[in-house]
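Researcher: Before we compare anything, I want clean individual predictions. No alignment, no superposition, just each chain on its own. First chain goes here; please echo the sequence and then give the structure tokens.
Model: Echoing the first chain and its structure:
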Amino acid sequence: MMTTNNDQRVSENLRAVMGEQTFAALTVIAQSHMEDISGVEAAVRVIAGVFDDVERFVRVLGVETPARRECEKKLLTGFQNNLRLLIEKTWVEKFDEALKEQVLYRLNRFCVQVSASRYIESVADFMDIVKDTVYLMFGSQTEKSDFGEYAMRIDPDFGVFWQYNRAFAQAFGSADALPQPTEIPRILLLLGMFFIANY
């Protein structure tokens, strides 16, 4: 993939705004190819620190236990409630009403998939839900190459989330095969949900 001078400038600007540690963590995620669990877990802890509270997020990491399942269930509920509220409260043009309804429908389907631990098949839905929700909020601005910079200026946490989502999509898209076990997609999916649950 060839990078342009504009891509390089945007990357340098994002690095300066978000900080070296956060930028490095996003790079680890984007280049993980869904294979390096220890690298991804370390990067996820850095990003969770930007989003909110690392200690709250790490409760959904590690060996599956009843306590971990309960934390994941609460995270899913918070995610669904916050995102539904955000979508419902977002004013849109008449021609975007159908998209708004589709996103709400897909959100419900996504939450059913995640609650059934179907993480891999949930990733594409998550990416689409986030992309469409952000489009409903910001319109065609989201399609511009400098939207990441714009997002960092208006809300640094949201800007990091936008870049995180892009890194996650790159990692998932570059995986040679669907990751087995599903722990890396699960962790990356839950981190994106963690941001929205606390937004």
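Researcher: Okay. Second chain, same rules.
Model: Second chain and its structure:
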Amino acid sequence: MAKTRTNLSYLFLYDPTRLISDEIHDRFKNILKYKIESCIDHDSLLKTVEAAPKSNNITKICIYVMNGMTESEEGLNNLKDLISSLSSINDNLSFICLLNKPEKEEKKYTYPLSCITVQNNDNVILRITNHVLGIISKENLDRKYFAAKRAVQLFLAFLLFFILIAAVSYFVFPQYF
């Protein structure tokens, strides 16, 4: 029987022009590790993010493909509103934006949003794949760090408890020491 994985990664792909969705599906086709939800409008993206499980053990990444019309300042303001509404739904969500313009021009808009920007060129799929795997690795390391920190805290609590018991028993039963 197959073991279910608790560290499943959800990829929410907003690609209205279907520019990279087939390549992304091919890159992350292992269904035991990745679940890809493709959306072509903002409402379906909001619904799929809202329907995703709210566990902290699941990595959630939104890949947002901006076409030429949405790269204006109004489109970037709409992106800011979308990211704030998605962050209010799920605060563990990471964002990757695919832009057609050079990254330096758009950094001033996307930097306050804590959004990773990727320029649309020949190696865009490789760069998106690297960013997605980097986010997943970072979150897995954070989870392992907090688990190790919790184990050390638990060990220290038990050690302090046994030292306290030994000190109390030393004063109550001095003949045994």
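Researcher: What stands out in the second chain?
Model: The helical segments are 21-27, 42-51, 73-89, 103-110, 124-172. Additionally, The radius of gyration is 23 Å.
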